Amino acid sequence: MRVSRSSFVSRIAPGLAFVALLGLAGCKDPGTASKGGAESGGAPTAAAQDTSGSEIKIGHYASLTGETATFGVETNEGIELAIKQLNEKGGMLGKKFRVETQDDQSKPEEAATVVTKFSNDPQIVAVLGEVASSRSLRAAPILERAGLPMITPSSTNPDVTKVGPNIFRVCFIDPFQGYVMAKFAHDDLKVTRVAVMHDQSSDYSVGLANVFKEEFAKMGGSITTDVSFNSKDSDFRGQLSQVKGAEAIFIPGYYGEVGTIARQAREQGIDVPLMGGDGWDSEKLVEGAGGPGKALENCYFSNHYSKDDKSPRVQEFVKAYSAAYGKAPSGLAAMGYDAMMLLADAIKRADSIERPKVREALASTKNFPGVTGDITIDADRNATKPAVILQIKGTEFTYKATIQPPSAAASTGVVKQAASAR
Ligand code: PHE
């Protein structure tokens, strides 16, 4: 499945290859200088890096407030825990790490504004963020033009890393996630007629809905209908009346609207299992669905890790995070932690905080031992990793199954422990 660099470069448009070469050489896209305007906040060029400071300064843009506030807050907690642990071990290259987190209020346009600040800050070595794919997609071109390496902890839309050679992720992508939920619906729930409800304002939701439909159809299932909504809506009854009759409903949305949709579905007498993707991961999900044991009880979603994983690596992380924040870490916290630790590992291997050298080291990451699994960055700057399926029980997300990427699963069957865990 892996593509070598030369074939990757030859497959992409000549324009992108040109930018790629500039990025590799650590130069700036000359086109940026005259652009300015709203996207880059009017800044004519990105500031040249200054590596003389006593700190390794990392930027993080995140939804600390707004519609998906738990995404940013939990990710930031994971990042801060990683930084605390790194600094307790003495930091790196004689410097201490520091993260500057900027709130984008869960808005793509704010994400563009705050990363423009980062691109004008000569001290910043690399940027972490965002969670929501629409916001990563808005910010990534600005960071790419500035030659600032960006790692999204958990944006799963494939287009994010296609923006350019400085844009990385440490999570799996939606073509895999959609396959995972289709496979689970087909093999484990054993349903054949599934409806889909997607958020038309979200790149993540649109992309994941499409993959699910394709994969489920390939498995012989039928999609009864696919209806769209907007996450800002509060009344989903019209859409719900159209999905009646399906044996399950796949809703690749974010936790806020999913809670409301689930409540309104049950009010209408729809009692089939609801399924989702990683966007359901929030400590606020169950509360929004009317509380424990209510509208989302026994429903399923795919995610990046399970806190119930018995491996010492995961359990050490769960212990340290719980001690720091008084709650169990979500997948988002784990992904934030992994993104920061992987960045530190790249800085160590680069033996430098110069952005082009850090970029090179990030691109050559192999088998980095993350709490969300071993992370190898492939030629497209994505990570190939297994996914887990979680089941909602009370306020808990309990482990149900691990699903390997297709290549690794070919000989063993894909849904591994699902049958026995029932
Ligand atoms: N994968 C989602 C996206 O790309 C974001 C997300 C990841 C949300 C993990 C919750 C947990 O938009």
Short characterization:
This protein is of the alpha/beta class and 422 residues long. The protein is 43% helix and 17% strand.
Main sheet: which strands, in order across?
Answer: 7-6-8-9-10-13-14
Bound molecules: phenylalanine
Counted by DSSP, the helix tally is 17
User: How would you sum up the major sheet?
Assistant: 7 strands, mixed
SS strand fraction = 15-25%
Total E-strand runs = 14
Tell me the count of domains: 2
Q: What's the name of the CATH homologous superfamily of the largest domain?
A: Response regulator
| Radius of gyration, taken over Cα atoms and rounded to an integer in Å | 21 Å
Bin the helical content: 40-55%
Distance between the termini: 32 Å
Basic shape: globular
As for the CATH topology of the largest domain, it is: Rossmann fold
Calculate the mean pLDDT score and round it: 89
Give the uncertain stretches in residue-range form.
Answer: 1-44, 409-422
Oligomerization category of the chains in this entry: single chain
Q: What would you say the CATH architecture of the largest domain is? A: 3-Layer(aba) Sandwich
